[in-house]
Design a protein that fits this description.
The complex is a heterodimer of chains A (576) and B (271). An eight-stranded mixed sheet of chain A has the order 8-9-17-16-13-18-19-20, with helices on both faces. Chain A has a three-stranded mixed sheet with strand order 2-4-3, with helices on one face. The two termini of chain A are 58 Å apart. With 576 residues, chain A is α/β, with parallel strands linked by helices. About 11% of the residues of chain A have low confidence. Chain A is built from 17 helices and 20 strands. Chain B is 40% helix and 16% strand. Chain B has eleven helices and nine strands. Chain B has a five-stranded parallel sheet with strand order 2-5-8-1-9, sandwiched between helices. The model of chain B has no long low-confidence stretch (mean pLDDT 90). Classes of the chains: A alpha/beta (576), B alpha/beta (271). Chains A and B meet through helix 1, helix 4, helix 10, helix 11 and helix 17 of A and strand 3, helix 8 and helix 11 of B.
Chain lengths: 576, 271
């Protein structure tokens, strides 16, 4: 059987290595199923390397050589050329000079890289002056100061590169030198044997990033993506087209700034008279009317349904996209498990003597008074059932708003997925749900994970997170509190994540739902539930502070920090 | 009770510690000391916080009492306690009390490691009162006019679980420390470990690469202290790659993949 060296053995190490060298993240992907060793390639920071290679290729060092070479192309940039103007020989020579240019630049910064590559520049016995042989020898002679070649063409090429060392930063250099060298080779009437593009060193990439014909397709996709984003950015998002309109004001938002909800002042309180059309089984909840000071019974209808599960593969992709954050959170979860161990002082019996109370006791004995016999320390694990968390997500229309090309709901989904993983590693009890409303008769409550279900079986439902309608917060809080209240834990935390103050299509008085939400939150304390809100829109801080109280909310400054901020909230407010 | 005699000499720093100033921190600290302002030093591990305090104590000619804080530390470990002897009980001053009595600089290293209820005992010493009540003894100590309080901590990811109370934080002026600039770090490494400048440059280059991995697989970048260790091993004749693996790569991580890439970085820089 043919022995193979596999990329998976060094995949992570190489990603770390590239990050350390260039201070940039590169993701490594596998090129699967090919008998010959395929050339590696790169698209932006995504590096594609062959899944396995014959073991004789210097084993895993091949992957280090390939990855550093290809990342050098990204770091030191390349100028793309049009294939039409160039013949095959010219293309190959421009490729070769470009490869040498980035390798020289990289090894100027890290001289040790020269050795990583030179290990593969072993020249075979082929001393024939074929074009490929000459190109290999030129490659070696440029990188290896001790190597001198008998061929005039190789020596000329080496001198040409040496002469231009100060111009290595110029991206046009490859074309200039490449064409000159190709011309000489042409005059020597040395054709390329295979008649097709050939890379002289297997660890080097296929240079597709250098030619327009290859990158055009990629760019085309990019343009489409950009257009999609642009059209979404320009769209004026409205929470509902009926009743009250909550406009998203256009403006230059920096990432994480959130949305500005233009609330109309001095609006009158008004309700839309709409019956629940589907008449599905719904639960009634009261609502607080601050104007009359009355809790209106059975005022809202809430329909609970379960989210649809999506594909697990997609979840894995999300986790790998956030791998560094995820690893950090895993570490945090493990530390929290250790934190569960507690030293309890002043115990009547235990593992160790607590010397401060012991001295006090001895003093009492000498003074002929009765000593306190609680002089021991005991190591105990905190009860594992010490904390229950309910995560309640605002899934109104405004979460579809794009910030830096990613919708708020998508960021929310990723962050909740990471928090869910952290909580399940820390062995906590938790539930995840979301809500949106379309008038008081239609509050949609979507259940992603209940307390009794394991996260591993329910996490695929998070892919169903999407924004629609409006934000009637009070009823959703009351409903979540019901299941949270039943948990037999010492601490109960209700974590609400919202991107604005409450609003709904049938309410024209902004303060109405704000007061109702405040009423719902106030009733939590008597049930032993601590509320906390993560606000994604700094402009609704005043309303959120009114609802949750000072110190019971946090405003997110940068949306991409959401996963970490969520976990911090869990540690800060859930554990202490 | 016989008055306790304290041997002050033991707390003086006799030899001038080597310290490279990276900014205006010496000047700022001196100003803070003149008005006896408590100082907090923040920065990653091994960047020179403790060395700075030693240097300043020596420069100002004050005794220095250092306490390495830990989770099991109680208030009485700082303040003092009654001990038993054959004649009865005897009060033993804690390091904080001694510092307040003799006018030393009291340095609580890694203060977040101590529990929050322990750290509150420093509060009366760090505001306008400058007193330390010894409740068990019924004594109120007026801090010596030269007494100053200095604390240090590392505001890394771990402080999420162990953070200072706002009421503690807001009693201190603070100086931010970080790993020094490349040139200064090269000077420190070659000075401390007596290696040639080119070796020190390579060590610092490794450090810069490794620090790129902070938050991307490593909780913390490599400290100047570890670079000095590597330099010292090299100057003792150990092969540079082995010295770096021993004192830079292996202490930083337990992850075999990360260890591989750190070794690879070391090999790239020390060819």
């Amino acid at each position: 059987m043919k022995e193979l060296a596999e990329l998976k053995a060094c995949h992570r190490s190489i990603e770390f290595y590239l990050r350390a060298l260039w201070d940039t993240d590169f993701n490594i992907h596998y090129i699967k199923g090919s008998t010959a060793i395929p050339y590696s390639n790169i698209a932006e920071n995504q590096i594609f390397l062959p899944e396995c290679i014959p073991a004789m290729q210097q084993n895993l060092n091949f992957y280090y050589a390939a990855a550093t070479h290809i990342s050098a192309h990204t770091v030191f940039g390349s100028q793309a050329y049009d294939v039409k103007d160039l013949n095959l020989m010219q293309r190959c020579m421009i490729d070769l000079v470009e490869d040498l240019r980035v390798e020289l630049l990289a090894s100027n910064k890290f001289p040790g890289l020269r050795k990583v590559w030179l290990d593969f520049h072993v020249l075979d016995q082929d001393t024939s002056n074929s074009a490929i042989s000459l190109m290999k020898r030129l490659s070696r002679s440029v990188l290896d100061f001790n190597y001198h070649d008998s061929s005039q063409w190789v020596e000329k090429g080496r001198r040409l590169v040496q002469k231009n060392l100060s111009k290595l930063d110029s991206k046009a250099l490859s074309r200039e030198l490449g064409l000159s060298l190709a011309n000489d080779l042409g005059q020597m009437r040395l054709p390329l044997n295979s008649g097709s593009y050939e890379q002289v060193m297997p660890y080097r990439d296929d240079s597709r990033h250098l030619w327009y014909e290859h990158i055009e397709q990629h760019q085309h996709i990019e343009i489409i993506k950009k257009n999609e984003k642009a059209s979404l950015d320009n769209k004026k998002l409205v929470e509902s087209d009926k009743g009250k309109k909550v406009d998203i004001v256009e403006g230059d938002f920096s990432p994480g700034e959130g949305l500005y909800i233009n609330r109309k002042k001095n609006a009158v309180l008004e309700f839309r008279n709409k019956k629940n059309p589907k008449n599905i089984s719904s639960i009634s909840y009261p609502e607080w009317d601050y104007r009359s000071g009355v809790l209106k019974r059975n005022w809202c209808k809430l329909n609970e349904k379960q989210a649809k599960a999506g594909s697990i593969d997609k979840l894995d992709n999300i986790l790998s996209a956030h791998k560094y954050t995820f690893n950090r959170l895993k570490g945090l979860a493990r530390k929290l498990q250790v934190e569960k161990q507690q030293r309890i002082r002043k115990m009547p019996e235990g593992d160790d003597i607590d010397y401060a109370p012991m001295i006090d006791a001895m003093i009492s004995v000498r003074m002929n008074t009765t000593p306190d016999t609680r002089v021991f320390i005991r190591n105990e694990y905190r009860q594992s059932k010490s904390l229950a968390i309910s995560i309640l997500l605002d899934l109104s229309e405004s979460t579809n708003y794009m910030i830096s090309g990613i919708s708020i709901s998508q960021t929310l989904r990723d962050a909740v997925l990471l928090l869910g993983e952290t909580l399940s590693i820390a062995n906590e009890q938790f539930s995840i749900s979301g809500f949106s409303s379309n008038g008081r008769h239609e509050i949609n409550y979507i259940n992603f994970k209940s307390f009794t279900e394991p996260f591993s079986q329910t996490k695929a439902r998070l892919l169903d997170i999407k924004g629609q309608y409006s934000t009637r917060l009070g009823a959703a809080i009351r409903h979540t509190a019901q299941s949270l209240e039943q948990q037999n834990t010492a601490k109960k935390l209700l974590l609400v994540i919202t991107d604005g103050a409450p609003s709904d299509v049938d309410v024209f008085d902004n303060r109405y739902l704000e007061h109702d939400s405040w009423h719902a939150v106030s009733s939590l304390y008597s049930k032993g539930i601590k509320p906390f809100c993560l606000n994604l829109d700094s402009r609704s801080d005043v309303a959120i502070e009114h609802i949750f109280g000072k110190g019971r909310f946090e405003t997110l400054e940068q949306l991409n920090k959401l996963p970490e901020v969520l976990s911090n909230i869990y540690v800060k407010y859930g554990r202490h | 009770m016989p008055k306790q005699s304290i041997d002050m000499d033991q707390y003086f720093i006799n030899n001038k510690p080597y310290y490279e100033s990276v900014g205006k921190e010496v000047e700022l600290y001196e100003a803070a000391y003149q008005i006896r302002l408590p100082v907090m030093l923040k920065g990653p591990t091994g960047c020179g916080k403790s060395r700075f305090v030693e240097y300043m104590a020596h420069k100002l000619g004050r005794p220095l009492i250092t306490v390495a804080c830990n989770e099991d530390m109680m208030a009485s470990d700082l303040v003092g306690r009654f001990l038993l002897d054959k004649e009865g009980t005897k009060w033993q001053d804690g390091p904080l009390t001694i510092a307040a009595r003799i006018g030393a600089i009291c340095y609580l290293d890694e203060i977040v490691e101590a529990r929050q209820d322990t750290t509150v005992v420093i509060h009366p010493l760090t505001d306008h009162r400058r007193t330390l009540p010894l409740e068990k003894k019924g004594e109120l100590i007026e801090a010596h006019p030269d007494f100053q309080m200095v604390i240090s901590y590392n505001p890394g990811y771990q402080t999420l679980m162990k953070d200072l109370k706002q009421s503690t934080k807001q009693r201190f002026s603070a100086l931010n420390f970080d790993y020094p600039d490349e040139n200064i770090e090269v000077r420190i490494v070659s000075n401390e470990s007596e290696v040639e400048t080119d070796i020190a440059e390579k060590l610092v280059k490794i450090a810069h690469c490794v620090r790129n991995l902070k938050g991307h697989g490593l909780d913390e970048g490599v400290s100047t202290r570890l670079l000095v260790y590597a330099g010292k091993l090299i100057s003792k004749g150990i092969e540079p790659k082995m010295a770096c693996i021993m004192s830079i790569a292996t202490p930083l991580t337990d992850d075999p993949d990360m260890l591989d890439s750190l070794s690879e970085i070391i090999c790239t820089i020390f060819e």
